[in-house]
Amino acid sequence: MEYRSVPISHVIRDLNKQYYLPAIQREFVWDLEQIERLFDSIMGDFPIGSFLFWKVEEDHKDDWAVYEFIRKFDGERPRNPLAGLKGINRDIHLVLDGQQRLTALYIGLNGSYRYHYYRWRVAKLYLNLLKPPTLNEDDPEESRYQFEFREDDSPEDANKELWYSVGRILDFEDAEDAKADAKRLLAGLPEKAQEDAKALIGRLHARIHTFCIINFYEEKTQDYDKVLTEFVRANSAGTPLEYSDLLLSTATAKWKNLDARQEIHEFTDHINAIGSRYSFGKDFILKGSLYLTKDLPVQYKVKNFTLKNLLKIEDNWDNIKAAITTAVRLISRFGFSAKNIVAPNAILPVAYFLMMKGEENFDRSSEQQDVKTQSEIRRWVVLAMLKNAFGSATDTRLTSVRKELEKHTSAETFPTDKINAALGIDAKLSDEDIEELLTNKYQGKYTYLVLSLLYPDRRWKDDVFHEDHIFPRSEFQVRKLRKRGYDNEKIERYTSLCDTVVNLELLTDSENLGKNAMPFEEWLSTRDDGFKKRHHIPTLKSYGMNSFEEFVEDREAWLVRELRKLGKSNGRSS
């Protein structure tokens, strides 16, 4: 292994020409501030770490899946394009350690960053030439220079800001030419400000073109397994290498007929578009690939990522996709969405059961036996999530459930009781469980899930639902409650109950917008006859604020009765 040093400009100009990314690299994950801080470190002469490049000989360059660096980052589509190496008749370098830093330099010097902040914006990196370098001894982490991603160079305060496009520095081999080019930009400034600005331009030029800041080790072996080991070790610092990243990367390199990265990314997008949309990541798909492939271990361990195992997953890929897709469509019918799937791994046993049944349209079936099985699956998923069945020792628990399912390969009905026994969980919600569920607060981890359970007959596919305060939150301000003549004890009771499940319901987005902060008594008078039954609203003589405590007492009793039904095997299907 050889150690070398080169200027930043030498590497930046050769990205996607000589330097590429191996499939074992993860995607670019840095945000704007991280890129700005990298440039600040470079300008301040702070070390930015060493790099590890793998020299791939020309005869071997087509043996691996190779990707390009991102120049124009897009937050909606942050994926690296596959590199086309046809016509490149030379050795190439693959970056094993330093992808995030090199991509950050590439974007800052020669690209852009598209991100969402109230709206989608495309920004480029600028340096404020009017801000002298500062050193905060109390906070050495504070930036010394003012680098900033901006949509344009328009200053907010012309007396304090003069924005210089950082990428402009690449156009000049000589620092004096860069300064001369900025002459028109600096025109009108006081002489001292001009000199300071030129000094900043000169310093930036030296750090990009002259100083050998890119210090790298060059690995020359053509042994992929040795390179893979080096990659894992190099990425053990900083953001840890996830086993899912390693599996995806290794599969990309070792699958014979399919591009694993493309397949898994496209499939992830596909299931996330089902129903009211989800937020599954590639780790869920990869875990599912292990789980749904016969005789493979569930655990993420490097020793399990053998060529033999990866080829088994490739051969089983169509079955994996079909089973997970059907399972996600099914839970979507049950009212599960990105908001209330608190344990995504609970879906994998369902997918395994469906794969054994071999019915890709099971979720659409209305046959009596299938409807009963759907009901059993819903009951189990609900209880598994509410009881945090996969909160710890997940791999062990998933393996136990898979073994139990394998004993019932010919079963018509989902073996709920057998699985619960394997997990060691009670099939019913105890009074203590229910009491705890009802204490969940507005927008809490389990709140949307608990609320969704109260609407077993709702159609979830075409609507977006919001958590809504039945008695408006705005009415629980202490000053308003005092104005009503309530004493401190009553005010404390009201405010403690305001955000809990007993004062929450799920409304469509249009309903919620129309309701706004309207007093509940007034809002209720505008609703149809079935509204109270749908939302478990008790019948009271009055629905004004003075009746809130009576409302809470009656509604809590109603909700307790509904939640107790969830543990019964004859629960309704959705």
Rounded to an integer, what's the Rg over CA atoms? 30 Å
Largest sheet features: 6 strands, mixed
Q: State the separation between the terminal residues, measured CA to CA.
A: 62 Å
Helix-strand makeup class: alpha+beta
Task: Provide the number of structural domains.
Answer: 3
Beta-strand proportion = 5-15%
Number of helices, counting only DSSP H or I runs of 4 residues or more = 24
Mean pLDDT: 87
Number of strands: 13
Short description:
This protein is of the alpha+beta class and 574 residues long. The protein is 43% helix and 11% strand.
Write the SSE topology.
Blueprint: E1 2-6, H1 8-14, E2 19-22, H2 32-43, E3 51-56, E4 66-67, E5 72-74, E6 92-97, H3 99-110, E7 112-117, E8 119-128, E9 147-150, E10 163-165, H4 175-181, H5 183-186, H6 191-210, E11 214-219, H7 224-234, H8 243-254, H9 260-272, H10 282-291, H11 307-315, H12 317-333, H13 347-357, H14 368-386, H15 394-406, H16 416-423, H17 431-437, H18 447-452, E12 465-469, H19 478-483, H20 488-498, E13 504-508, H21 509-515, H22 520-524, H23 531-534, H24 548-564
Parallel strand pairs: 2-6, 3-11, 5-7
Antiparallel strand pairs: 1-11, 2-4, 3-6, 7-8, 8-9, 8-10, 12-13
What do these coordinates show?
- The structure is a single chain.
- The chain is an alpha+beta fold.
- It has three domains: 2-216, no CATH class; 242-425, no CATH class; 435-567, no CATH class.
- The protein is 43% helix and 11% strand.
- It has 24 helices and 13 strands.
- It has helices spanning 8-14, 32-43, 99-110, 175-181, 183-186, 191-210, 224-234, 243-254, 260-272, 282-291, 307-315, 317-333, 347-357, 368-386, 394-406, 416-423, 431-437, 447-452, 478-483, 488-498, 509-515, 520-524, 531-534, 548-564; strands at 2-6, 19-22, 51-56, 66-67, 72-74, 92-97, 112-117, 119-128, 147-150, 163-165, 214-219, 465-469, 504-508.
- The strands form three sheets. Strands 1-11-3-6-2-4 form a six-stranded mixed sheet. Strands 5, 7, 8, 9 and 10 form a five-stranded mixed sheet that branches.
- Strand 7 and strand 8 form a beta hairpin.
- Helix 8 crosses helix 10.
- The longest helix is centred in the middle third of the chain and has 20 residues, at 191-210.
- The protein is flat, with a radius of gyration of 30 Å.
- The chain starts with a strand and ends in a 10-residue tail after the last helix.
- The relative contact order is 0.07.
- Residues 569-574 have low confidence and may be disordered.
